[in-house]
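Q: What does the assembly look like in three dimensions?
Context provided by user:
Components: two
Sequences:
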Amino acid sequence: MALSQTRRDFIHNLSFAGAGMIGLGAFLQSCAEKKIIYSHDLARIYIEGLQRIIGVIREREISKIEQAVGLAVQAKLQGKKLYAHLIGSMIEGETSEKRPGHPNIFLRSYISKAAREDFVITNEADEARGLTERLVRVVGITSPSVPSAETPPGALENMGSYRMEDIADIVIYSHIPPEDGIVPVEGIDIPLYPSSGIIHTLIYYSFVAEVMEELAKYGVYYSTAT
Amino acid sequence: MKGVYMLATQYIDTVLDRLSNVTAGLEPVREIGEFIAQAVKNGKKVYVMDRYSIVDAELVERPSCLMLFRSFKNEGDAMTTGDIFLLSSFSADDESDLDLLTQARSLGAVVITISPEGSLSRSADRALTNKGSGENSVISIPGIETRFCPVSGIVNTALAWALAAEVTESLLNQQMIPSVFTGEYLVDKSGKNIEARKKYLSNGY
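A: Here is the predicted structure of the complete assembly.
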């Protein structure tokens, strides 16, 4: 076996030799002995994975984003309040009122204060429970809870009591896997490098761009943090 | 309504374009990933900082992420000579970022930045530049002077995850399997983080 081969070649050859499953420790030791360089190009796989998810959102979710924009604009023009409750990782910093480039459209206080015909956008279903019963307009960002290729049965077993589909008027799907990570790495039992922070931020700003433009047509302008 | 959701798709297309720039420039990411892995192998710690809590909120204590990334805000007091200070900013030359860099260097840290090209990247020991994202916000409409809807946070975060991927690969090449955070909500994964944490504390990665 050539010493300069890649790890992928090594796995390929092993499978032909009928070696089957081997432990990662032994495998890495074997790689070291044979001077095989681990070269799965994980960084590229991650970025391309993100691009693939974003492509799906562009293809399937734009019409729902536009419906959400319609609800938000309607609420604003009726003098109602607009709320955003977006939690987890980078999106909290991205939607901070001090974040340069972030238009300060939404109230960041507790969405439980939202009243009839106010508007709420959120990625936390439990926090938004009961709002639609009070005729608050609710838009949710989440992974599908219905079992599918994207959400295998049981994947969301421990993900809280409420499903976005049950508590929101419009659900914008993020198309991220339940594990959040999108790069499988041998020897590690979950996919690595999460996608939800980036994807939720992308959906939020796509929505904000449209809200800003629609409201400007009615003479409603918001300041942007600088 | 107007000509079919132009701004939403414009924003998405801009992000896709900037991510393509990241893919086209992965070589420095690889080099810095190897550098960080070597430092970790030598027992050094990696601290992450972002004044707007974007990249550090992603990399630190997040399911599907390596345990070796620590928060500078919470644990920076423990920084010692030779540790890594990973500073992310969407500004090329903000005084507050430059002060942070000076502060970390005075503690003996090696400074790595993720930012647009400018004073900050030039002052760093090693730098990843988010080419094409220096403009920060990318949407403009008549009647509003300021551009809005930033892409810099997304690009910096993508670069940071690409860097984490390269660190992982480099560690695996040295037969070091990094500890990772697991989402406790995942089926059959409860308690995994306790085991992983023990391993991280004992071997540093």
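Follow-up: Residues 152-173 of chain B form the longest helix (22 residues).
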